[in-house]
Amino acid sequence: EAEKDIRDTLATFAGAVGPEHTDSNGFINVLVTTLDVNSTLDNTFQHPIIIQGVADTPSISVAFFGNTTICEDEGDFNLNVSVGKSPDDDNSETLSIFLRVSLSQNGNPAGVIIGTQDVSEVDFVDDDSGKYTVTASGD
């Protein structure tokens, strides 16, 4: 009856691997011991746990400063894109921002993104077709 109780208890177990927001793999080790009057035998089992990283949902807000209606030949508008910090604390995720300028009737970008593009540990890519990518390159 004791062995059945042990098996029934083990059947209720579940594992949790932590800490959160990591993609580090691990192991579950199980040691089973049998004890008799004159001897003891052990058997060890090691099972790898493969963690598949899951990206956290980013937060974003965009604010326009000043007029968003602009005469066609008269200038720019100020745009503030704010991206919230990811709960990723082990740097297993890469945050990228994609901006796209709409295309004009002839298929060329109808404008450009201008601003600081030489920030340390940030890559800014302009593919000359109205698509811009901002990606963190450092930790």
Index terms:
139 residues, mainly beta, 7 strands, 1 helix
Q: What can you see in these coordinates?
A:
The chain is mainly β and 139 residues long. Helix content is 6%, strand content 35%. The longest helix is centred in the N-terminal third of the chain and has 9 residues.
Major β-sheet, in short?
A: 3 strands, antiparallel
Q: So what's the overall shape?
A: rod-shaped
Which ranges are low-confidence, i.e. pLDDT below 50, for 5 or more consecutive residues? Answer: none
Content-based structural category: mainly beta
The whole-angstrom Rg is: 28 Å
Determine the mean pLDDT.
79
Count of strand segments: 7
Side by side, the strands of the main sheet go 5-7-6
